[in-house]
Design goal:
- The complex is a heterodimer.
- Chain A has three helices and six strands; from the N terminus they run H-E-H-E-E-E-E-E-H.
- By secondary structure, chain A is α+β, with helices and mostly antiparallel strands.
- In chain A, strands 2-3-4-6-5 form a five-stranded mixed barrel.
- In chain A, strand 3 (65-71) and strand 4 form a beta hairpin.
- Chain A is elongated and about 70 Å long.
- Chain A starts with a helix and ends with a helix.
- Helix content of chain B is 45%, strand content 22%.
- By secondary structure, chain B is α+β, with helices and mostly antiparallel strands.
- Chain B has 24 helices and 34 strands.
- Classes of the chains: A alpha+beta, B alpha+beta.
- Strand 1 of chain A pairs antiparallel with strand 3 (425-427) of chain B.
């Protein structure tokens, strides 16, 4: 048996085991119904419900804020995130939270926001600038 | 849009010139490609006409690129907002020192930066490459050609469909946005620019991108050599000259990535120097592959083996650089990365860029697969090249693992093209995911770098004696490494045997390479390069184990009781109230004060460390800050502050502030939601609020002692000195809300007692109780000579000086004015010396008197007439009616505190091991490069 064959064999075994082990780290963006049965933490994608209260009171707890999120199946649940409220949270277009569902509340330890791009922002600003002109 | 509008103030010529240069740069580099091709096809050593043409056109290209950059800089410095790129990245208030950062903040500018380095390196390449020039320049220019299309900004039509090639940085703002503001011919006067994102207003933004792009640009060179070698079927002569370029590129690219890590750590509060973010990963992978290529290149140079691998690694390096460009600039990472560029519609072009070079490399390689020199006999396991080859394979493996996981969004996108209902998958928790594979890579690499340096090229076996002299020292090094690992365990926790093993192997390579240096330096000084590289790698990983694995929070709050606490949850922030020390994990933390200067608000935090007996053993201050946006309406970013020790860092940043302090809108909303009740009180009155809180109006003042009021430079001010008491809470605090008059407008400067949640404003009606209006004043006249005096209501007023050269804030000087100012001095009952200076002005033969007023005594004085004949002056004097002492105040209760911050403090042990290890490793590349650059035969 040549050494290159041994190396190739080891590489293949390593590659297969990495794929097997690594694929367990992968999840899909789910909805709240998926979180009900999940044993570990899950990622839920959705949008912020601006009609419901967003609560962050630094005096009460600097490590937590809460809001209501609509998932892709349009289920609404309260989400409590264990960190301070990020900047521009209210402007977010979509949200991904990572955590667990306990009862009717989703406890998240991580949150990712997708915010409107700078360019879109600019267009809004230019338009707003014009509105101001009209009034003035 | 209406094209007939004649806009005012636009300067369109520089943009047109720059666009001309963009097109010229494209055409000239296209010609360089063609001429290099012709030289290879038809030229000889003696007939180098095409080569010369290629050089000239490359020079033309270089000048064009420099001109575009120069003009764009000029437009940015002069803030020509008619250009979209200038409008997007510059603003009126942008400090000049950030002009470079602003230049490469956007896609077009960063492509220009990349092209700039490509040109600079190209000049050196032409100067140094000698006989390989044409093949290298052919592929080098081909890369630059495709980069040049990125800023071309040409629209190509296929029937109905038009496609935009490149994004032109000289586009006009009114051609980008179709908004009605451009109906105005003077729209330029209305614009002030968007400016640079405050997060990027940082000196790292000035130095990190140029370094990284120099790394990217230099990574084209090994590719160009490799592709040129395959194209001309000359597989050997490139192996030596390419090496110094590869070493340079690996050094610079590594430095660029490293700078990004320092930036993330020092300024961006990403919580560390490395987060396995896709953008970080995809700049790391090309570097890893390039390092693998350098190792097989060394094998090929010394033994003639692994030429094929070297070709693959170098080609892969460029393809991966381009792939990372695609990932960061196409917007595909939007969901998963914290720091990608905004999407600009260049995706198809970026895919073409990657695909073109991937296919080109593959085609070159496979059409020549049979010719690439190989050696029939396999390497011996006693040879250095065998283990170096294995090491390169391990690096390749590492790169494949990282890029596969990072490419998940690309995979999702491709699958969803065929199956729109496909649910994209993501990595649940990226950091442990990457770490668990890379730890084994690091273990393998550290072992390989430790022992392989002691093996010889082309060795076929080892005699008993050789085995002994090889193995015994290795055992000794390993034993020392194990001992050091044990000693370190008193300082660090390893948590898992894997990390203990990694620590041993890292020490092993540090010791083995260190010993190599001591033993071998005299015989061969050139080993310094790789010894530094390998030992630096070991130290760097030791630093990662120390700082990453043993990171601990000072401010972790484990005592809060809650219904549900999750395992992953980290409660790393604590609240600090201004002036109130807070004790946690052996530290007294005090938020002492904060100051705002320019756009930065700086918090002064006192740290006092206590030993187990309760003695304060150390006191220091840290100053984390936050940045407001360019309009000062919102918080834009927070910056940490770091206390550095030899063995650790204490890293502090503000994680939260009350909403009213971060956003002017929220502050307004909060203010509107307060319930103010109006009370009409006499001086000395006491008011009892809820829960037996007491408010006493102690006195009033015409010289308010209130910072905000003082900053406002008002004309007049009135304050109430109010004592707020809560005996139960042991609070007794005096506040001073103010009413200020500035240019006939009244402004309120409220004050609050945070401990009692009370906020008090002076009602505007109070003003009339303390100041008498002009029409209600009763003036008395006095006629006095210069130097004379008069008595009014028991006070003696003396006319001191008269001058006609007047600068006075009550008076706007005009041409032809005759003006006299009198200085009148008087002493109050309490002994205060006061003065007033009324003015007398003759403007256009009409006399005016401009009065002066002393709010303290309530005295109004006018100089109403001057008799030039006998030098007598007529003064009119009146006093405020000050018998009403009713102060009308608006008081709100249950006001949220505004003097509170949430703070996170983290200890990173051994972080200096990481910095110094990385610097040592990178200096290894530069040392090796320098040695080869200087030596004549290498």
């Amino acid at each position: 048996m040549k050494k290159s064959h041994i190396i190739a064999f080891i590489a293949i075994v390593a590659a297969v085991s990495i794929i097997v082990i690594g694929s367990k780290d992968v999840t899909t963006y789910g909805d709240f119904s998926m979180a009900e049965n999940a044993p570990g933490s899950v990622k839920i994608a959705g949008t912020l419900d601006l009609n419901k209260p967003i609560h962050f009171d630094i005096e009460e707890d600097p490590n937590s804020f809460s809001f209501y999120m609509n998932d892709k199946a349009n289920n609404r649940k309260k989400v409590i995130v264990s960190m301070a409220k990020p900047q521009d949270f209210e402007q977010s277009e979509s949200i991904v939270v990572t955590g667990k569902l306990k009862g009717d509340t989703f406890y998240a330890h991580d949150i990712l926001l997708k915010c409107p791009s700078k360019y879109k922002d600019e267009e809004i600003r230019l338009r707003a600038g014009l509105d101001k002109e009209k009034v003035g | 849009m209406d094209n007939t509008i004649q806009y005012i103030g636009e300067n369109l010529i520089p943009g047109k010139i720059a666009h001309g240069f963009i097109i010229l740069s494209f055409l000239s580099i296209l010609y360089t490609v063609y001429a290099s091709y012709k030289q290879i096809k038809s030229g000889t050593i003696d007939d180098n006409r095409w080569q010369k043409l290629a050089r000239w056109s490359f020079l033309t290209h270089g000048i064009s690129v420099f001109s575009v950059i120069g003009i764009l800089f000029y437009l940015m410095i002069t803030a020509r907002y008619e250009y979209g790129y200038v409008y997007d990245h510059v603003s009126d208030d942008l400090p000049m020192r950030y002009i470079f950062s602003a230049f490469w903040e956007g896609q077009e500018g960063s492509f220009l930066l990349w092209m700039f380095w490509h040109v600079v390196l190209g000049f050196f390449l032409i100067k140094k490459t000698k006989s390989l020039e044409s093949p290298v320049l052919l592929f080098y220019s081909l890369i630059q050609l495709i980069l040049a299309t990125m800023i071309l900004g040409v629209h190509v039509g296929f029937g109905e469909y038009t496609y935009k090639i490149g994004s032109n940085p000289t586009l006009l703002l009114r051609d980008i946005f179709d908004v009605p503001v451009f109906q105005k011919e003077n729209y330029l006067e209305l614009l002030e620019g968007t400016g640079l994102n405050p997060l990027l207003q940082n000196y790292w933004m000035t130095i990190h991108p140029p370094t990284l792009f120099l790394g990217f640009a230099s990574a084209s060179i090994p590719f160009s050599f490799a592709a040129g070698a395959m194209y001309t079927r000359d597989y050997k002569s490139w192996l030596t000259p390419v090496l110094k370029w590869s070493l340079f590129s690996a050094g610079v690219l590594g430095l660029g990535i490293f700078m990004g890590g320092i930036w993330a750590y020092e300024a961006l509060t990403f919580g560390g120097y490395w987060a396995w973010d896709p953008v970080e990963n995809m700049s790391l992978v090309p570097w890893i592959i390039l390092v693998a290529g350098i190792h097989t290149n060394l094998i090929a140079k010394s033994t003639g083996r692994a030429i094929g691998s070297t070709l693959i690694y170098y080609c892969l390096t460029l393809v991966l650089v381009l792939y990372s460009t695609y990932l960061t600039r196409s917007g595909i990472l939007g969901d998963t990365s914290a720091h990608a560029f905004t999407e600009m519609g260049l995706s198809p072009q970026l895919i073409f860029l990657v695909g073109f070079f991937a296919i080109l490399s593959t085609w070159l390689y496979f059409t020549r697969l049979k010719e690439i020199p190989k050696q029939e006999k396999e390497e011996s396991i006693y040879s250095r090249e065998f283990w170096m080859f294995i090491g390169a394979l391990v690096l390749l493996f590492s790169g494949i693992i990282i890029s596969t996981s990072t490419s998940l969004p690309v995979f999702n996108k491709i699958v969803s093209l065929f199956n729109p209902s496909f649910e994209g998958s993501v990595i649940n928790d990226p950091i442990p995911h990457y770490n668990k594979f890379q730890i084994w890579i690091a273990i393998l690499i550290s072992v390989l770098t430790a022992k392989t340096v002691y093996l010889r090229y082309k060795a076929n076996g080892m005699s008993a004696q050789q085995t002994k002299s090889f193995a015994l020292p290795q055992i000794a090094y390993f034993a020392i490494a194990a001992a050091l690992t044990f000693i370190m365990s008193f300082w660090l926790d390893y948590f898992h045997w894997k990390y203990a093993l990694l620590t041993v192997t890292c020490w092993y390579t540090v010791i083995a390479n260190g010993a190599m240096l001591i033993k071998g330096l005299k015989q061969n000084p050139r080993i310094v390069g790789f010894v530094c590289g390998h030992a630096g790698f070991g130290l760097m990983i030791l630093g990662v184990i120390a700082s990453g694995l043993n990171e601990e929070s000072i401010t972790e709050d484990n005592f809060l009781l809650r219904e549900i606490v999750l395992d992953e949850e980290e409660r790393n922030s604590v609240n600090l109230i201004k002036g109130k020390p807070f004790f946690i994990n052996n530290y007294w933390l005090t938020y002492e004060s904060d100051t705002t200067y320019d756009k930065t608000r700086r918090f002064k935090i006192k740290f006092e460390r206590e030993d187990s007996l309760g003695n304060k053993v150390e006191t220091f201050y840290l100053y984390p800050n936050m940045l407001y946006n360019n309009k000062l309406t919102k918080m834009a970013a927070v910056n940490p502050s770091i206390k550095r020790y030899v063995d650790r860092d204490i890293f502090v940043h503000v994680t939260g502030l009350p909403g009213s302090q971060t956003d002017i809108e929220v502050a307004k909303e909060n203010e509107d939601s307060l319930v103010y009740i109006t009370y009409d009180m006499m001086i000395g009155d006491t008011l009892t609020l809820s829960e037996n809180k007491k408010v006493v109006i102690e006195s009033y003042s015409y010289q308010p002692n209130n910072e905000e009021y003082k900053d406002s430079q008002s004309d007049l001010g009135l304050s109430a000195v109010i004592r707020c008491i809560d005996q139960k809470m042991e609070v007794d605090e005096v506040i001073e809300p103010v009413l200020g008059l500035k240019e006939n407008m009244l402004y309120q400067y409220p004050d609050q007692v945070n401990d009692l949640n009370i906020k008090i404003k002076l009602n505007e009606q109070s003003f009339d109780n303390f100041f008498t209006q002009e029409n209600e004043l009763v003036y008395e006249s006095f006629t006095v000579p210069k130097g004379g005096s008069f008595d009014y209501k028991n006070t003696s007023y003396t006319v001191k000086t008269l001058d006609s050269n007047v600068e006075d804030r009550n008076y706007d000087k005009q041409e032809g004015d005759v003006v006299v100012r009198a200085l009148i001095e008087y002493t109050l009952d309490n002994g205060d010396n006061r003065s007033l200076s009324p003015l007398y002005v003759i403007r256009g033969s009409k006399p005016y008197s401009i009065k002066d007023y002393d709010p303290v005594s309530g005295t109004h004085i006018r100089l109403s007439h001057i008799n030039p004949a006998n030098e007598e002056f007529v003064f009119q004097i009146a006093e405020d009616v000050r018998d009403a002492k009713s102060m009308i105040v608006d008081i709100a209760e249950n006001v949220p505190r505004d003097d509170i911050i949430a703070l996170e403090a983290t200890i990173f042990p051994g972080i200096n091991l990481f910095w110094s290890g990385t610097i040592l490793m990178l200096s290894g590349f530069f040392i090796s490069w320098w040695i080869r650059y200087k030596s004549k035969y290498a």
